[in-house]
Amino acid sequence: MRSFIFVSELGEVTRFFKDAEPEEAIDAATQSNVISLASNSNYGHALAEFTRGYLGSVTRRTTVFVIGDGRNNHNPANAWALEDIKRKAKRVVWICTEPRQNWGFGDSEMLVYEKGCSQVVTVQTLSDLEKIAQQLVPV
Average pLDDT, stretch 76-92? Predict the structure, then answer.
């Protein structure tokens, strides 16, 4: 399993999850200066960067999870990148933190990104995530 974080740029943080508990790994990954956390989100840039740099490691056995609200700060959506990932992967699951009724308004690209996903689920609380976790990652 590989893990990445992004705001505008993309950074691999797999190494932080090898020997640490998830909470510790997340703290280490976000405090490591792998990426700048001070920039505005740019999903299009991060998706394009993933496609250019890591698409070769995606296979028909790969499930790609994207977690976030899909608000792109009016940057190009680069939906082609998500479509490329979907074509190679077993599935692409987007865990969106914003209610569906907000999609497509302002800088939300979720209506566009939804088309490049196998499944999109809305999760706003840890309780929501627990409820769908069994569906998303069967044991």
Answer: 97
